[in-house]
């Protein structure tokens, strides 16, 4: 019997070894807890991105205030996610003990713990990177969509310009028809004094040299010159009286062109 007791004593694990195992267990959980906190914070930034972006782009936010706002918002997210994790694990006795004291000092953002300040800053920097990368991606997508719209508008404008050019120049095929540059629906007609539209108010004095053929040529040239400048916005035509001279003008809001046609 005495030999068995001695044998059991010989197999007893030293207290130092038990403490090391306990320390390793706490360390592993501590690292796991930190990693879980990181993942929760990064996920939260993506989920709250729309709300953060709306506040970030608020017209009342100045550039310097934006940076401070985002830093404060990210710290609030970390603090909130930390509370959630502690609440989730508070029902587990072994876990709740390991979350006391040390973690409160690590993740309390009223004053960063000196030893782990670098880790805390890493989380904040990564949260900022995720947020700003999403903004950059959104802007790139918006620019791509803008180019697609511009391409569609350019195709539409070119098709319209070609059609209008053909209408203005193909006199024989259209029996000398010339469409009104103002309303785009009426047909231009002429008499001894005026060139006018049969649908709208457009009326132009003929003078000695102005006639329908010259007007058609000038309209086609004005459209072509505007297109050659690289502007793809469809111009407008208007009749203006400047310095007692009434004339037909081409006007473009996009490239700010305003020039006389005839």
Automatic annotation (TrEMBL):
Transmembrane segments: none annotated. The keyword Amino-acid biosynthesis does not apply. GO terms for biological process: protein import into nucleus. Keywords: Metal-binding, Nucleus, Zinc, Zinc-finger. InterPro entries: RIP, RPA_interact_C_dom, RPA_interact_central, RPA_interact_N_dom. It is found in: Nucleus. The keyword Zinc applies. Residues 33-59 form the RPA-interacting protein N-terminal domain. Residues 179-259 form the RPA-interacting protein C-terminal domain. This is RPA-interacting protein. The lineage of its organism: Eukaryota, Viridiplantae, Streptophyta, Embryophyta, Tracheophyta.
